What we know:
Elements: H1 5-16, E1 32-37, H2 41-54, E2 58-63, E3 69-70, E4 89-90, H3 93-99, E5 102-104, E6 108-112, E7 117-120, E8 125-127, E9 130-133, E10 137-139, H4 148-153, H5 162-173, E11 179-184, H6 194-209, E12 214-219, H7 228-238, E13 243-246, E14 251-257, E15 260-267, E16 270-276, E17 278-281, E18 285-287, H8 289-293, E19 306-307, E20 312-313, E21 319-321, H9 334-353, H10 360-364, E22 367-375, E23 381-391, E24 396-399, E25 405-406, H11 412-430
Parallel strand pairs: 1-2, 1-9, 2-5, 9-21, 11-12, 11-17, 12-13
Antiparallel strand pairs: 3-4, 6-7, 7-8, 10-18, 14-15, 15-16, 19-20, 22-23, 23-24, 23-25
Helix pairs in contact: 1-11, 2-9, 2-11
This protein binds flavin-adenine dinucleotide (FAD).
Amino acid sequence: MNFNRRTFLKAASGATALPLLGHVRHARAATSRVVVVGGGFAGATAAKYVAQWGGPGVSVSLVEPDATHVSCILSNLVLNDRVKYAALGFNHSMLHQRYGVELVRDRAVAADPVAGKLDLASGSTLAFDRLIVAPGIGFDPVPGLGTPALQAMVPHAWIAGSQTLTLRDQLMKMANGTTVILTIPKAPYRCPPGPYERACVIADYLKRKKPRSKIVVLDANPVIQAEPSAFLNAFNVLYAGRLEYVPNAEVVRVSFEGSRRVAWVRNGASEIAYRCDVLNHIPRNTAAPLVHHLGLANVGGRWAGVDPLSFESAVAPNIHVIGDAQGTGLPKAGHIANCEAKVCADAVVRMLNGWPIDEPARLSSLVLNSACYSPITYTTASWLNAVFAYDAGSGLMKRVDASFGEAERHSTKNFEQMFKWAERLFDDTFA
Ligand SMILES: Cc1cc2nc3c(=O)[nH]c(=O)nc-3n(C[C@H](O)[C@H](O)[C@H](O)COP(=O)(O)OP(=O)(O)OC[C@H]3O[C@@H](n4cnc5c(N)ncnc54)[C@H](O)[C@@H]3O)c2cc1C
């Protein structure tokens, strides 16, 4: 591997400063209205940068129902009490105070791209010239978990929030000698290394606190989807005898036997039952419900197809989709969502002003970075890095192979760097 940690850190930190894309011009005098839906990594960044780069001629509103966005990034470390839940909550007040973004505490429910109207759950409507949709992910329904009460008993904790705390409490309360099952959905899903990282965090917790317990990882995919050498080493060496990894294990339904949970895995025409005491089932991911309601999920009926030059929807004019909901093939991760948001913000400001988005200088600077740090034990982490560049021939974002790499070993140094990297990303997104 010719990609070392120093190169990684350089690339990772460069990403947050990424596409300024030559913004010296300010938007036109008449006010244009940009509405952003979703205040997570993609939406909060987009609101901030459209407001900055658009100048006084652009008004920006951010629609988000939650007063506090809870970061998924680092949330696996809430499960073993390494990070306090409250430390991962971010409000959007800085976006208002520093950049003049109007905060609208509401939920978007419908949009008319031609009339430029966004309907909110409260019954009010916002007018827009450009709409940026960044609502994250949703899930396929799970047979056997048809009610909110049953869903709360089997938390996915794949959108950070109350389910993160539920899963943490279940792990803390389980008796020594009992079993946890973690399921991994078919790719693509949010954060490729995330479930394997969670498997390590839980296995490490069991090793230290409940040494007679074990974790079974049921992976719907045929192989580990990210950082295979770090995770295989962890599974086979660090957690040998404590962690059982089962590939090609797609959970098709869930049932209950008293206090025990049963995950049913497809096996040809029949099913195999896996029984446990704590079940962390992550259902198959898709774009958030809003993307489906707006008719934007044209990629496999799951994700929103977009033009990578602007993240404008392939099916609806004036609507852009960024973050995990987009279907370009870019990984679904917060760091790259932050980069996508800047490309989109730049394009939106250009489009509002009638400036081109396909200037050669801009095309050659469309380089996006994805980075993840993965805790492997209570004190060590590994990392993964990939860079994607615009390919004019295909019109797609393509991975730059020389940039692709993972840490040679998990280390305490990586663990410390993880917090610095996250702090920088949180600041660039929410402050
Ligand atoms: C355990 C875990 C660990 C992870 N670790 C990493 C990592 O190390 N590095 C990394 O890069 N990524 C990581 N990720 C992935 C990262 O968290 C996501 O990729 C990122 O959150 C996606 O950003 P987003 O803005 O698309 O969605 P989100 O951050 O989920 O934000 C979506 C927002 O939209 C709002 N919303 C939804 N519907 C509506 C609506 N109708 N109206 C208004 N608002 C709405 C929601 O309330 C939410 O605030 C991790 C994920 C998990 C689960």
